[in-house]
Design a protein that fits this description.
The radius of gyration is 17 Å and the shape is globular. Strands 2-1-9-10-15 form a five-stranded antiparallel beta sheet, with no helix packed on it. It has a five-stranded mixed β-barrel with strand order 3-4-12-11-8. A two-stranded antiparallel ribbon has the order 5-6. It is mainly beta. The two termini are 16 Å apart. The chain has one domain: hypothetical protein yedk fold (Alpha-Beta Complex). The protein has four helices and 15 strands. It is 12% helix and 32% strand.
């Protein structure tokens, strides 16, 4: 499942005030080229007044206690009681991305072949996500990070025909249009399953060649 993606508004060629936030400008945001588990990613959520707001969050909500509470970056089983509290509109967010990666299932044993998926126009799409604040140690044994953290995870679904030959288990839930993004942020909880299950058209993404990934994503191929 997706555990690595790029979020680079400069490469997307969209306006600097994307979604109305001048925080995207080079002078006010340390540009985030690549997002990994537990690292900071840019997300957009609805604030208390109902307006969209931009936020920095770390990728990976704490998982169920039976799994040791390890951070979970991709959520598939929405029927799990563990995720029930973050499925309502108050805890929804979108995570803008310019490309995401999957390792090929058919890679030879011991080898990992990374494939990058991006919009055909090389613009910016968004993952459907959920978020919450959490207090605890979000660091490591060598570098503890104790405090209150804003965390997010993305929803996954069955892969479409483009992604399936590379990674047959799952793909992110992707929001292509402003209407789809608004729907995700505001829909009643009863609609979440249908949004998750909605198939992404095959032509909504393309697979980048290694050469283009080097230029477009920034050379993160290993």
């Amino acid at each position: 499942m997706c555990n690595r993606y790029a979020s680079d508004i400069r490469k997307a060629g969209v306006e600097r005030d994307y979604y109305g936030f001048d925080e995207w400008s080079d002078t006010r945001l340390n540009v985030i080229l690549e997002v990994f588990p537990k690292s900071i990613g840019p997300v957009i959520r609805r604030g208390a007044n109902g307006d969209l707001e931009w936020a920095r969050m770390r990728w990976g909500l704490p998982g169920p206690a039976r799994t040791g509470g390890a951070p979970v970056t991709n959520i598939r089983n929405l029927a799990s009681p563990h995720w029930r509290g973050v499925l309502g509109p108050a805890h929804r967010c979108i995570a803008p991305f310019t490309a995401f990666s999957e390792y090929e299932d058919s890679s030879p044993k011991g080898a990992k072949v990374l494939r990058w998926f991006a919009p055909p126009d090389r613009g910016m799409l968004a993952f459907a996500g959920v978020w919450r604040t959490w207090r605890g140690d979000y660091g490591s044994k060598s570098a503890p990070n104790v405090g209150e953290h804003a965390l997010f995870s993305i929803l996954t679904t069955a892969p479409n025909d483009l992604v399936r030959p590379v990674h047959a288990k799952a793909m992110p839930v992707i929001l292509r249009t402003e209407a789809e993004r608004d729907e995700w942020l505001t829909a009643p909880i009863e609609a979440v399953d249908a949004i998750q299950a909605r198939a992404l058209p095959n032509d909504a993404l393309t697979i980048l060649s290694d050469e283009e990934a080097t230029l477009y994503v920034g050379g993160y191929l290993k």
